[in-house]
Amino acid sequence: MLFSATILSSAFLGASHPEQEKNNVLTAQERQAGWFLLFNGQNTNGWRAYNNKPYDSWEVINGQLYCKSKDAKERADLITVDQYDNFELSIDWKVDKGANSGIIYRVEETGGASYETGPEYQLIDDEGYSQKLEAWQKSGSGYAMYPPLELAAKPAGEYNHTTILVKDAHVEHWLNGKKVVEYEFWTPAWKELKENGKWKEAKAYGMAKKGHIALQDHGGGIWFKNIKLRKIN
Predict the structure, then answer these.
(1) pTM of the predicted protein model
(2) Where are the domains of the chain?
(3) How high is the pLDDT of residue 19?
(4) Are 36 and 26 in contact, with CB atoms under 8 Å apart?
(5) DSSP the chain
(6) Are 218 and 115 in contact (CB under 8 A)?
């Protein structure tokens, strides 16, 4: 499928150019393909708190965006200032031991939390989390909807590479070069999962065709870098 070919092509280009090894920069090939940075490695320009909540839980450390697990008095998800409909998101992330977070897309600020409207790509310490995890809670899953086709996350403390593709109703989750979730919004099968699961009371969940991208603060212990996006026509 077109999306899969795009990812393989991007990986090939990255492997053949030393420039790609630098953090929070774009290669000439990426710029030509329409990619741009969502995180510059220095500050949180382009991001703000969900519903403009006050927060002190996020900081930038050595080119990494870090959500603190300690010494935070006010917590909030970070969301992109801009909204996106069809896009390819590329992002590197790692969790501290026992940490839990997520990347949430097509988010609207109409609820108390970003996940009430936006589907979540789960990020979690699969092996070291304090509770037993269901398949739909593992890294790469469409949280509470779609379990990953295989477990592909690295251990806590090691960086993973994620790609999320959203084109109209079609969605793909990739983790470390493997496609772990693929689904279509608004189909009878999708509606059945929503109406018989965790989101049955969340009427706006997954309904937006455009929205913010959120990085979840679920108690911290999550690191991000190399956050890049390109719009898909």
Answers:
(1) 0.92
(2) 2-231
(3) 46
(4) yes
(5) -HHHHHHHHHHHHHHT-GGGGSTT---HHHHHTT-EES--SS--TTEEEGGG-----EEEETTEEEE-SSS-SS---EEESS-BSSEEEEEEEEE-TT-EEEEEEEE-TTSSSGGGTS-EEEEE-TTT-SSPPPGGGSTTSBTTTB--SS--PPPTTS-EEEEEEEETTEEEEEETTEEEEEEETTSHHHHHHHHTSTTTT-TTTTT-SSBEEEE--SSS-EEEEEEEEEE--
(6) no
The tokens for 44 are 């949180």
**122-170 confidence digits (pLDDT tens):** 999 999 999 999 999 999 999 999 999 999 999 999 999 999 999 999 9
**Structure token digits, residue 229:** 């996006």
Residue 82 one-letter amino acid = D
Q: List pLDDT tens digits, range 176-214.
A: 999 999 999 999 999 999 999 999 999 999 999 999 999
Question: Is 2.60.34.30 the CATH classification of the domain at 2-231?
Answer: no
- Cβ contacts of residue 159 below 8 Å, gap of 6+? 92, 93, 94, 223, 225
Please return the burial class of 176, using the count of CB atoms within 10 Å of its CB with bins 0-12, 13-18 and 19+: middle
- State phi, psi for 131 to the nearest 5 degrees: -120, 155
